[in-house]
Amino acid sequence: MLLPAAAAAATAAAAAATAAAARAASRLVQLFPSRRISSLKVPWKRDPVLDAAITRDRRFRQASRLVREVLLSPGRRLLFRYLTKRRERIKLPVHVPTFLRRYPTLLSVSPPPKPVASPSPQLLAFLDFASRLYELHAPLLASRLAKLLMISSTRALAVTKIAAAKRDFGLQDDFLVSLVPKYPELFRLVGDPGPDASGNAFLELVSWDDKLAKSVIELKADKEANVVGIRPRPNFTVKMPKGFYLKKEMREWVRDWLELPYVSPYANASNLDPASPKAEKRSIGVLHEVLSLTVERRMAVPVIGKFCEEYRLPNAFANAFTRHPGIFYVSLKGGIKTAVLREAYDEKGKLVDRDPMLELKERFVAVMEEGHKKYLEDLKMKREELQKEREVAGHEDVKVAAEIEDQLEEEWHSGGSGDNDT
């Protein structure tokens, strides 16, 4: 309970905020009386720090796609010749046997004549750890999934759309079986999703939870209120990148736009004019909240686009990311546009707040690095043995040895350098 003086101060602050919002709305109309918000252009500027954060993950993404092909096969076993034919589908920059030589702890391959790929002992240990971690954080994942449904105007989402983004939100591959049935008070599955979640099915919200209907921005304001006794006006954190400058008219627009009242992504937005600054505020709130619910506070723009209809986002929603460079960043690395929540990363490109599900990725990368380290040690040993053979043989068979060394050199650099992830 607020003291009388604090209550009076809070009332005065609320009145001042309302007056400021009214003035801001008036200035916005004066600044752009006839222009649509979607026509406002802001130049895109590359952020090497955030680009590097995405580039660092390319090996992880390649390896996880490869492993998933085996894990989703019957009995977690797949004929090796079938796996090698899926190179293009899983976007590997090298042949499957080459990739597995570089990361031998990912999969085990049985001997000919019909080699079969299956999880390695190290991968099986990782899967056991993943199962325990999913169980531990089931309440977190359930609340995250419920929030995604609560943002939807229909309080439901197609299973295919959730499945397309499940890894972004930290959901397990079989979330319809392992997570959803545990929370009948929250979820109802309608229709038949099929074995691969590609069927005509929807996940519906059973009951609204006011405790969950608060965005990250609103929770931050509540937290500050508990500390200082006065709740600040919820708003976005603007963190402009170094060396980035907006033109004067755009700076004025952003200033006045930030003065407008915050619109919760969980609020009913059916009465908002789609071309109004308030609708823009609501759209940015939705995009901010969706990215805040992801494990790494970033998501591929095409995947976000799958939720446009249910989340009442405009068709040109992607332009909003570049229109607000102090809130978001769009990376073009990896051959796909990725929206990044700028405030979630520090100046070194590291996440400020760690999501509990991030440990899964770190454990998987550790399995990869264990095998890659052994691969590099073996290469080094082969080089040393070749050098000794050349010293003993003198100049005999120099040409053949040189050819072998060239092959080893190529293998050495391909093992330590970066592959392009498309």
From TrEMBL:
Pfam families: PORR. Residues 45-372 form the PORR domain. It comes from the Eukaryota. Residues 369-396 form a coiled coil. The keyword Magnesium does not apply. One of its GO terms (molecular function) is RNA binding. Keywords: Coiled coil. The keyword Coiled coil applies. This is PORR domain-containing protein. It comes from Setaria italica.
